[in-house]
C-alpha cells in the first residue's frame, strides 16, 4: 500500500484527552479517530490490525470445532424478559423503541438470541455437542468511557456459545475454549494470566478471565507468590487465619463521637487500631436490607454478598434507605438493637474481635467494648471481605500479591441458566426432555488490539508483534526525486508483494526525518530503507523491536528477510 494516498494521519503531539499509552499511540499513529465519547472509527492501519486479531481468533475457534454464525445486533426485549435480564442487566443495556413502540436493545452480548436459535432448530441429543461463535459489533452504554477502545460504547467482540447434554460434556467444551483462548493470546504476543473470576450479569458459576498484565488495568489480580494460583480480587477466597485476644471482656458503653463518621476519623481521634473497629455497611439485596460487618481494616466484597444470597441485584443503601431501616444517618450505623427485618451477616474475622468499637445507630454516637453474640446476633459468619496483599494464598502456597490486569477474554460455565428459562430442551437417548447445558466464551477483539499496544511500545511509538502488525514490512524511499532510489523502491515494492509480503510503501515527498519518525511511530516489525547506496544495489534493514540495523545486497535480501521475520514474534 502506497502512503501517498493512504489514510494514515500521524500526530506529533500527544492528544490532551488521551490518558494512557495505547490510546495516545492509536491516535498518534493514525489507527483510530474519535467520533463521539466512547465511539471510534478505525482507520486503515487500525482496521488491518483488528482483522489480524480476528483472523487469529477465527483460526483457533475453527480448530476447536466451533461453527461461525452471524446474529443481529438489534434484539427484541421479549427475549431479555424470557431470560430475566431486561431489568437485571442495568443501564449499560442500550434500549430503544421502534416506530411501532416495540422495545429493543442493541446487543451487548447474545445469550438470548443464540439460545432461541438452538432451541428452535436443535431437538435431539444426536446434534449435540455444538459450539457456535460470531465476531460482531457490541454495544454497552458505559457510564464513563475511557482509555480509548479499552472501555468504549461500541466494540468488536468474539462471542461463542456451547451446548452440551451433560455437565461432563460442558467441561470438555470449556476446556477446548480455554485452550483456544490461551493459543489466541499467546499468538498475539501478550503477557497474560487466566484467573478465577466472577460471572457478573452473565450468570453461571465456573468462570475464568484472561487478563493482560498492565499498570493501567481496571481489574486487580490476586496471585500467589509461590504457585500458579491467580484470581480476580472480586472472587478470591480468604483463608481464615485469625486468633482471639485473651483480654478481659468489658461492659458495653455508648460514647459521643461528634462528626466522626469514617474508619480513618475514628482511628485518628480514638487512637485505636482499625482492627478494633467494626465497619457496618448496609446493602439492599434484591430489595431486602442486609447489614454486612467487617473489621475496620477490611473492605466488604459485594460480589461475595451476591453469591451468598444468590441475588440478582446488590446495591449500597441510599441515605433514605439507611434512615428507613437503621433509623440513623449513614456514618453511625452498627449491628446493635436493629430491626428484625435487617439481615446481619459478618465476615469470619468479626468472630475474633474483642471489645471493639461500632456505630450506635444514633447520630454522633458509637459503642465501645462491643462483642459479637453478647451484644448482637449474626445470621452467619462467612467470607465477606476482599482479599489483601500478604494474606495466605487460597491454595496454601505462599502469600497473595497484587497485579493490575486488562480483561481481554472471559469464559463461563452457564449450565442451564438460559436453557431452562428460555425452554432450550432436547430429547435424550431415552426420549426424555432435558435442558441443554451451556457455556459462554468472549474475546474483546478491539480490547486485544489496545492491550497489545499497551504492552508493546517504546518512547518512539508502537512495536508490533509480527502476528498482529498491520503490515509485515515498511519500505521507505528516502528521496523519491532520486531516479535510482525511486526505481529500486518501485522494483522492490512489486517484488516483495509478489513474494507474499504485505508492504507499506512510503513514497511520499517528505523529509527523511519525517518518514523515519512516522515509521517508528507506526512500528511495523521490519523497515527496508532505500537510500544513497541504491546505485550499489544495497538497502538497509532495521528491526523495530531491537533497533538493529544491517545493510544487505539485493541478491541477499530475500533470504535475509526470511531469516529475520522467522525469528520475530
From TrEMBL:
Matches recorded under InterPro entries: aa-tRNA-synt_IIb, aa-tRNA-synth_II, aa-tRNA-synth_II/BPL/LPL, Anticodon-bd, Anticodon-bd_dom_sf, Pro-tRNA-ligase_IIa, Pro-tRNA-synth_IIa_bac-type, Pro-tRNA-Synthase_IIa_type1
Q: What are the annotated GO cellular component locations?
A: cytosol
Q: Which GO terms describe its biological process?
A: prolyl-tRNA aminoacylation
All residue ranges annotated as the Aminoacyl-transfer RNA synthetases class-II family profile domain in the record = 33-465
Protein EC: 6.1.1.15
Q: Which SUPFAM superfamilies does the record associate with it?
A: Class II aaRS ABD-related (SSF52954), Class II aaRS and biotin synthetases (SSF55681), YbaK/ProRS associated domain (SSF55826)
Localisation:
Cytoplasm
Cite a single Pfam family from the UniProt record. Answer: tRNA_edit
Q: Tell me, what is one Gene Ontology molecular-function annotation carried by this entry?
A: aminoacyl-tRNA deacylase activity
- Signal sequence region: none
UniProtKB keywords = Aminoacyl-tRNA synthetase, ATP-binding, Cytoplasm, Ligase, Nucleotide-binding, Protein biosynthesis
Catalyses: tRNA(Pro) + L-proline + ATP = L-prolyl-tRNA(Pro) + AMP + diphosphate
HAMAP family the record matches: Pro_tRNA_synth_type1
Concerning PANTHER family, the annotation shows: MITOCHONDRIAL RIBOSOME PROTEIN L39/PROLYL-TRNA LIGASE FAMILY MEMBER, PROLINE--TRNA LIGASE
UniProt similarity note: Belongs to the class-II aminoacyl-tRNA synthetase family. ProS type 1 subfamily.
Q: What is known of its domains?
A: Consists of three domains: the N-terminal catalytic domain, the editing domain and the C-terminal anticodon-binding domain.
Describe the subunit structure: Homodimer.
Q: What does this protein do?
A: Catalyzes the attachment of proline to tRNA(Pro) in a two-step reaction: proline is first activated by ATP to form Pro-AMP and then transferred to the acceptor end of tRNA(Pro). As ProRS can inadvertently accommodate and process non-cognate amino acids such as alanine and cysteine, to avoid such errors it has two additional distinct editing activities against alanine. One activity is designated as 'pretransfer' editing and involves the tRNA(Pro)-independent hydrolysis of activated Ala-AMP.
Q: What is this protein's name?
A: Proline--tRNA ligase
